[in-house]
Specification:
Layout: H1 2-20, H2 27-47, H3 69-81, H4 84-92, H5 97-103, H6 107-124, H7 133-139, H8 146-153, H9 157-185, H10 190-199, H11 201-213, H12 222-231
Helix pairs in contact: 2-3, 2-4, 3-6, 3-9, 4-10, 6-9, 7-8, 9-10, 9-11, 10-11
């Protein structure tokens, strides 16, 4: 049984790696001068996860044998380390063809979404779920102490795993948008993308500031522009 579970988890990681593999041809050549040690360590962390042990959950979710607490822990590591290489391309090689092939489509972001979805699904299958709903409701109770309630929620590993992968996925989604806007309008974006990776929303604010300082102005109304393209 342990061997079967290990093989199942390894299959998840290998499938993710193989999905982006075609985009990474020649990537090591592009990054060797800039960040060879960083990228190699990140890849090692992302794709050398130890096989999970047999879970001791009392809930029978073994139809697939994958929705276990140990696999949630493994998925947490994938959600943490897998996006880091794409970030390096966006920051260090924003105009390279390999970056455009890797991040121009939605493959990487979709894979991150799938990892998050797995964490949510596996958490629901656990006896305690992601976290007690009563405590989660306290976060949105304006008459109470929402911040304290949120701090309390951090006691639950499944909730931490869900929130962490949630944040990392949306940070990458916004960072990719900043990079695309920079390409479209000729705005330097590496510093903004870096800040987006580090602390999220301030990276978008820095991009707006860069647009104004460089005379590129803010992006227009995308909904109106889309309608014009359809009508045109």
């Amino acid at each position: 049984v342990p061997a079967l579970r290990a093989a199942a988890t390894e299959e998840i990681v290998v499938s993710i790696a193989s999905s982006v593999g075609p985009f990474l041809d020649g990537a090591s050549v592009h990054l060797q001068a800039a960040s060879s040690s960083s990228s190699s360590s990140l890849l090692a962390s992302a794709f050398s996860l130890a096989p999970p042990a047999v879970a001791s959950s009392s809930l029978d979710v073994a139809s697939s044998g994958m929705l276990t607490a140990d696999n949630i822990k493994a998925a947490f590591s994938v959600a943490t380390f897998f996006p880091q290489l794409p970030w390096l391309f966006l920051i260090l090689l924003p105009n390279a063809e390999v970056t455009k092939k890797l991040m121009g489509g939605h493959t990487v972001v979709t894979l991150c979404c799938l990892v998050h979805f797995f964490i949510v699904s596996a958490s629901i299958a656990q006896p305690d779920g992601t976290a007690p709903m009563a405590e989660f409701a306290d976060v949105f109770d304006p008459s109470g102490d929402p911040q304290a309630a949120m701090v309390g929620m951090m006691r639950y590993p499944n909730f931490v795993s869900e929130e962490w992968s949630h944040v990392l996925t949306w940070d990458l989604f916004v960072g990719r948008w900043i990079w695309l806007d920079g390409l479209k309008r000729g705005v330097f974006s590496s510093h903004s993308v870096l800040l987006c990776n580090l602390i999220g929303p301030p990276g978008l604010l820095l991009h707006w500031a860069t647009c104004l300082v460089t005379g590129k102005r803010m992006p227009g109304n995308e909904a109106t522009e889309a309608e014009e393209q359809v009508d045109g």
